[in-house]
């Protein structure tokens, strides 16, 4: 049996037996999510928890001062940054910024795959969030949340992380990146749902991870649809006809203003602002 076939067999067996090792959220993200759920949590309490991770604290201050939040007055302290972001948003924001800690390996060939996966996740998050922000400008009463959209984009394919972790035990497969990609495409949706359930992420995240590969619009629109727009922009869908039908539907739903939405100057500016938060 080839290394590729062995990996696929092992993944199938572990999925069936529910024994596949799933990635766990960074400890700082778990702490922030726990304290955010407490009814008596204060901004000062949250700042104290975030301060336990200096790197994350610095990134939150950067975010609070970024064009992404559209603020001109700079904040200089972590408490000011937490106040600006808000308790209701910081759970998703801090989790998104901490996720990069999971994409690390001591093996260079594995790290290359993890870096590629993380870059793809950032791209999807940036495209989908930029589309949502443009949509919000025309539909200010929408219930969609920008911070939730960004996190949803970052974890839309989180199951692929578990696939790479399992493949790390079979180094031969890293010489066949196309095969590794195909394996991920096959099993990542199911694994993604398992990961998100284990992390306590709500149904909207799980739905997006399960369904974004389908070249078919949701009715009414969901976060999944903005991730599908990212898939279109990245040339993911193989059927040009199905993609055009999907685009037409999104034009009718007013999720986008023009078919070439990714070439709009406003989109490009928002996209770059969001990407800069993770670089």
Automatic annotation (TrEMBL):
Domain HDOD, residue spans: 22-215
Q: Where does the signal peptide begin and end?
A: none
Database matches in SUPFAM superfamilies: HD-domain/PDEase-like
Instruction: Please give the superkingdom of this protein's source.
Output: Bacteria
According to UniProt, the name of this protein is Putative signal transduction protein
